[in-house]
Amino acid sequence: MKVQERRNAIVNLLLSEQEAISGSALSERFGVSRQIIVQDITILKGMGYDILSTHSGYIMQKSPLKERVLKVHHTTEQTEDELSLIVGLGGTVVDVFVWHKVYGKMAAKLNIFSDLQVKQFIEGVRSGKSSELMTITGGYHYHTIRAESEEILNRIEKALDERGYLAPGE
After folding, report:
1. What is the DSSP letter of 64?
2. Which pLDDT tens digit goes with each residue over 38-57?
């Protein structure tokens, strides 16, 4: 994993967790020393990320990143294209969720921000280990998309619309 990919992964992990994450846990997860994690956190703070260092670890207070929830609809065969499109334009697919008529909201964290992660997700689904949440709602689902700016989110939304992936009325 390259340095910038690791830092992006740290940001996404801190944004997705409610509890503090220790430097040791980050060190182990990313296969680098605790000192490298401290340096990464320092650099991320310098980039504007409001990361709080506590006795139990790091917590993201507030993110400078922008988020948007998009309702999409497509087939399972188009999932790889959808995810690749989003990350290729600079977005992170934070989660996926559906509204089930009986169960209500059903969600899963994804935090997909690279082509490698898209491929790993697709391999996991195609291996038969599990199926995509959207299969229980006929292909309709929502994604929370995170990016550095509203302009990037606008480009992602436009590209999804051009491919026919945005759900009607969205």
Report:
1. S
2. 999 999 998 888 899 988 99
